Amino acid sequence: MAKNLRIVELADGGLDQAVMAQPAVDLPTKQLADLLYRSQYKSENQGIYVAPYESYHADSDTYDAQEPYDQYLEHMIADYLGEFATIREEAQRHFHREMSVGYYVELFIARLHRKFENHQDVGSLVMVDGYEKELTELK
After folding, report:
1. DSSP H or E run through 52
2. Would you state the pLDDT for residue 4?
3. For residues 34 and 109, what is the distance between their CA atoms, to the nearest angstrom?
4. Which letter, b or e, does each residue of 81-118 get, where b requires 16 or more Cβ atoms within 10 Å of its Cβ?
5. Is residue 63 classed exposed, middle or buried when 0-12, 13-18 and 19+ CB atoms within 10 A define those classes?
6. Which residues touch 40 (CB under 8 Å, ≥6 apart)?
7. Burial status of residue 65 (CB atoms within 10 A of its CB: 0-12, 13-18, 19 or more)
8. What pLDDT band is residue 7 in, cutting at 50, 70 and 90?
9. Are 103 and 24 in contact (CB under 8 A)?
């Protein structure tokens, strides 16, 4: 069964507020990656996998799980960091000031929500437990 309740909101992520107020451009990429990952890390994520929304099997009420959620987060973070310059330019255009770390992390969380909750989008995903991954491998 799909579970999309794993996305942690910024206020619940336990990240240092002083760091969130800093300009994102001042932080090294590795530190930004760590903040993005920590914003979403929960020990309960162990055993949770990512599956395409379109892979649902009504007969067994399962999805075709692909990779662990934590591993998916690592890939998504790497892709997101690759867009840093574009995101920064957009933020400056809209807000007429330097992008904060908090804004950058919040936008990442918003993208997670979009990926896992807007199933009208092509390539949307769901979170499933590891049991469904085992079922997929047995087929």
Report:
1. strand 48-52
2. 54
3. 14
4. beeeeebbeebeeeeeeebbbbbbbbbbbeebeebbee
5. buried
6. 6, 7, 8, 13, 73, 109, 112
7. buried
8. confident
9. yes
Helix (H) or strand (E) holding 35: helix 29-40
Q: Is 47 left (phi over 0), alpha (psi -120 to 50) or beta?
A: left
Going by C-alpha positions, the residue among 101, 110, 107 that lies closest to residue 15 is 101
Q: How far apart are the first and last CA of the chain?
A: 17
Rounded-to-integer distance, Cα 132 and Cα 130, Å: 5
This prediction's pTM: 0.85
Burial class (CB in 10 A: 0-12, 13-18, 19+), 59: exposed
The residue written with tokens 């949770």 in the block is: 48
Per-residue pLDDT at 14: 86
Amino acid present at 135: L
